[in-house]
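Table 4 source record.
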Amino acid sequence: MNQYVRSPKDKISMNGGEGMSKGKVRRIIESEEPIFQDRVVHEVLLMILEPFFEARFSSKSHGFRPGRNPHTVIRTIRSNFAGYLWFMKGDVSEMLDHVDVDVVMNCLQKVVKDRKVLGLIESSLKFSDKRVLKRVVEKHGNDNGLGTKRRIEREKRNKTKKKILSDDEPKPDPYWLRTFYSFAPKEAAKVPSYGYCGVLSPLLANVCLNELDRFMETKIVEYFSPCKDDSIWKESIEDGCHNPAWPEFVPSSGKEKTRKMDYIRYGGHFLIGIRGPREDAVKMRKEIIDFCDRVFGVRLDNSKLEIEHISRGIQFLDHIICRRVIYPTLRYTGSGGSIVSKKGVGTLLSVSASLEQCIRQFRRLAFVKGDKDPEPLPCNPMLYSSQSHSNSQMNKFLETMADWYKYADNRKKAVGFCAYVIRSSLAKLYAARYRLKSRAKVYSIASRDLSHPLSESSNNSAPEYSDLLRMGLVDAIEGVQFSRMSLIPSCDYTPFPRNWIPNHEQVLQEYIRLQDPKFFCGLHRSIKREGLTLPQDEISEAVWDFKTLGAWRSKYENKREADDGLQKLDSQT
């Protein structure tokens, strides 16, 4: 039994005996973590199934997929969601925690026909259900006596942390990375976990939620109602203003009669934009509730599907989506040849970072206190770190935050606030560590970016920092980044293609098209019709020529030149 559950990291006894007791084997099997061999099987299944499903998933889905991330969601919203009046924000994240086995298998069986693969996935899902049921029974059952005491003692031993890690054991994440993970929005914080499926869970969640994506794609086509009198979307869904400088600019002049809808999903959260009356949004909400109840067995209420107007602002992935009214000057040539300047009216879709959410996260991590006028607090977790290490850790955090708010309109303001909090927190920490009176004293010695060294004592016999740095006894101190607003990069307004698809998905889609016999035969006939040759035909001709003639005939124009070339070869030999 041990050979099926032992990991390569497990130690084997020197006398050749079995290295695992029956109790340890039972605890491994009943634990929440899958055994080593199961993780290997799940990784292999992911390598097989992920390329197969990636080309078949909807382009509206961006969560837990290679080549797609929250930045692609924000750029898609900026480029494609201009002109919508009503927004519906949906939450089906309860499907990421637990989903019925029959629902997953029904979605898989539509595409996967291999019974062995289906059997492996179904056994993992069913075993996880049995484990959850057993845990519930143990929690609510009567377990008084020696068993309870032993279980509590075992849990205490498991909770104790190791002070020394082995070479093959994973190291904990650095402080700056743990801090950045704490800023993850609620749409991206939850990762699917279907029991013993392990790394296969995100793919299975996307397989199930792909049914919702396809349902919404059909509804988008059905709802579209164009009007030639409209300023945008006059004839087709792909119509619309797509200025490369301001891709979200939508003129508000003209009769807004076109009805249009769009949809995007990240993980268990989705956003729907509707250009039409609120009654249409309410009707669509009812249809989504009925679909989720019928297909997934999930009952949603109105609190899970909120409808908001664009003027109130919609928060998605910690970014606020709102509308700004602008009055550009339109210049055109009149009937008499004179240039006419006229004030126009338009709207811009603004996607900005949520500073309130940023303050809330800083307050939860004990970096600030207060709401309206937050006061920075000392960074106590870095109390026993050197000045160079503390500055480098916070610089990595600030670089990551600047990249996270890369496509926010108020990127300078958001990153500047984060830099102010971090710099003030470090200054208060240094004031307490080096026994200085205030932050002003720290800034006067270490400069604004805290790049100058701070000494613990004023003893003149101590060596200078420059001498210690030259000898390699101390690390160079990096200044805290973004100490001035001019050093913060501005928002990236690079236009995003409307029908953007990652490169690997394009290759997979081309491969799927070649698997179709009709498409392949038509492609082969077109190649013959154009007088072209396939690489396979050239290889076969070259092999045949070398076997029969000893030279490649296609290098010569006709057979006579090929014979002359063979005679030259014979004369040289």
